[in-house]
Amino acid sequence: xxxxxxxxxxxxxxxxxxxxxxxxxxxxxxxxxxxxxxxxxxxxxxxxxxxxxxxxxxxxxxxxxxxxxxxxxxxxxxxxxxxxxxxxxxxxxxxxxxxxxxxxxxxxxxxxxxxxxxxxxxxxxxxxxxxxxxxxxxxxxxxxxxxxxxxxxxxxxxxxxxxxxxxxxxxxxxxxxxxxxxxxxxxxxxxxxxxxxxxxxxxxxxxxxxxxxxxxxxxxxxxxxxxxxxxxxxxxxxxxxxxxxxxxxxxxxxxxxxxxxxxxxxxxxxxxxxxxxxxxxxxxxxxxxxxxxxxxxxxxxxxxxxxxxxxxxxxxxxxxxxxxxxxxxxxxxxxxxxxxxxxxxxx
Amino acid sequence: xxxxxxxxxxxxxxxxxxxxxxxxxxxxxxxxxxxxxxxxxxxxxxxxxxxxxxxxxxxxxxxxxxxxxxxxxxxxxxxxxxxxxxxxxxxxxxxxxxxxxxxxxxxxxxxxxxxxxxxxxxxxxxxxxxxxxxxxxxxxxxxxxxxxxxxxxxxxxxxxxxxxxxxxxxxxxxxxxxxxxxxxxxxxxxxxxxxxxxxxxxxxxxxxxxxxxxxxxxxxxxxxxxxxxxxxxxxxxxxxxxxxxxxxxxxxxxxxxxxxxxxxxxxxxxxxxxxxxxxxxxxxxxxxxxxxxxxxxxxxxxxxxxxxxxxxxxxxxxxxxxxxxxxxxxxxxxxxxxxxxxxxxxxxxxxxxxxxxxxxxxxxxxxxxxxxxxxxxxxxxxxxxxxxxxxxxxxxxxxxxxxxxxxxxxxxxxxxxxxxxxxxxxxxxxxxxxxxxxxxxxxxxxxxxxxxxxxxxxxxxxxxxxxxxxxxxxxxxxxxxxxxxxxxxxxxxxxxxxxxxxxxxxxxxxxxxxxxxxxxxxxxxxx
Lengths: 347, 527
Fold this sequence. Notes:
Chain A is of the alpha/beta class. Chain A has helices at residues 54-64, 153-166, 181-191, 205-213, 226-229, 241-244, 267-272, 287-297, 309-318; strands at residues 8-11, 14-17, 22-24, 32-34, 49-52, 72-75, 81-84, 87-93, 101-107, 110-114, 136-141, 172-175, 198-200, 221-223, 236-239, 256-260, 277-279, 301-307, 322-325. In chain A, the strands form three sheets. Chain A has a seven-stranded mixed beta sheet with strand order 7-8-9-10-11-18-19, covered by helices on one side. Chain A has a six-stranded mixed beta sheet with strand order 1-2-3-4-5-6. In chain A, strands 14-13-15-12-16-17 form a six-stranded parallel beta sheet. In chain A, strand 18 (301-307), helix 9 and strand 19 form a beta-alpha-beta unit. Chain A starts with 7 loop residues before the first strand and ends in a 22-residue tail after the last strand. Residues 337-347 of chain A have low confidence and may be disordered. Chain B is globular, with a radius of gyration of 26 Å. Among the domains of chain B are: 211-400, 2-Layer Sandwich (D-amino Acid Aminotransferase, Chain A, domain 1), CATH 3.30.470; 404-523, CATH 2.40.50.140. Chain B starts with a helix and ends with a helix. Chain B is built from 20 helices and 21 strands. Helix content of chain B is 37%, strand content 24%.
């Protein structure tokens, strides 16, 4: 049977399935794209046709406008199989954000799984990652260093609520990426018993509405307007990370600035960003999860798309697994901005 | 140890003083004895270990991890203790992390050879945050984002909230008679014990501080009611000689005796004196930069002591032997001080002379004429003022020389903290060198109004030419009039010059950057 490298190749547009003639998460406009999830670096505008989960398509419409600039869409529910030429395509939950899916490709008796971005930790806003045995596993490595072990998210939320209790006169402004992280933080707060209204930056509102429409209950959400800003002592506000250092934040009198990101594991990242309360909450796999996943799928070979590739490739080598870097350009660590200064991060 | 690790992390990331106080007070209120006492010792610098060397810690981590992955991780994180704390593999069925008391007790009693095994067990039992605090503590690298004074202020606030009105100064007065873990102190603060009696121990007494004088204050001043002295450019110290030993304390109650063994040796008296610590060679007071050489040394060698001889210029007496004279007037205390110095004649000390004057105008002329490097200005003290803790109004005034001024060009701006975190409020500025290069001479983050800050922030956002994390490099287009107290030579700055107390005096929107001052304008101020 042919090795997946004979039918899954790297082209300037991105990863290309040759027999099916489609691209996976292409970074340039292509005639046919299969999209793992709706983050802006994976789901770009301008494709002829898009195949994705129904949730991903709904979130793409919220982000890019209802007609997606003229793109034809086809949704594929998890578990269903679509045959394109002689390639079988299946979408399997990746646990990254709502709608995120691994793309399982079967061709001529060999199987490749492209995981997109993923995590293994539980997330009340999306279906959990399901390991699929395969011949080649294509993985991310955003947190591909052994210093990254994300603590349980509930403990981080408890840290936030302790701080709200200790500083009842201040507003806690939490930087959280608009798609996925924000809704997860809200859902975790609700699980922890926080039933007060949660106030949102304008950029968060449409995506939260889409989550609710897709059946993820988020409770009482309100717009953190300039007028509301002064009155939010003891309340929690969510905003895109880039807004924390922006003039937008001036509507709060004496805020506690928090940031929900896996990078907050490293103190210098918090210090440099002026973050008073780092919350280590990530939608990407940490180092133990990366290694666990590689073991779970049992692939004799992994391809690493982006992040700290060398360390993961080195660790795979120690486990006698073949590994190579794909060096795909254009993917960033969406939702995990290391520097809150970054521009245009708020999708 | 868990609560202590959490406290340390929040203190280092929290910019606001009130917020730090709230964190400290909450910690002291909720953490049990003796751990809160050991934590207090660590926060105030009374607890330090050098038991473990970095090589030992690195070696332990490399036994648990792959060497290549460790190296890459260290490169990424940049700090050894933090790398080890994060990379250390989690042990599922580990014991509870050690308490601070357990750490202190173990390090004091166990031989060095037992340390690797003990440390390994502790690291296994701890979370990353606790590992980090533990490693920093035992390598002597603990960075505390709060001063000792702030910790004492939090203790006083806690006691007051619980019904025993105690001020931070009350805590200072007993502090140096206490040893960790301070259970008698906590008992007193929490109303379950008497005030600890410092007895014959050399304890610190809160100093009396002066207000800067404003023109309005000056106008109403009766020259006959005041004594004047030079304001020496050193650091304020309190000398405490007692049967229990001699101490040199800084104004902030830090015990700096170890840095000044020459002064300790010269203290041939029992009593408490107030004065200015300076470097003096043949009766001439050296610039402040010379004193900094000594302040940076924990234990100066003979050579250092000979090259930078420490000296105290005395100006007040708080205790004459065991007699508390703080309630007496300045005039009486001055007479006592003169008699005390005449009787004991200590080496390395003299009296700060009184400046004779008959009118405020005459005093102003003296002030303007004083350009010696060791003089910052004048002090005015009411003849009938008792020695009061803190900064009481109307008793003592400081009248600094007019600041020096230079027109510099804004080069970099950094976002501030807390309320200023969305504003570019910290400025690095420079002067032109002969070769046309702009070289930085200092940093300032004060001196402007809120409106000016908003306008500066706007200008910076619109004129950014480069970004380095929270720092922006700006186009060379804005002149800042910078006021400062003195200039000194510095090998750490590219310009070779460093400023004392720089602040923004005015924003020169009108002045082209090319017309800002050249570096020579500053070198003429160098001593």
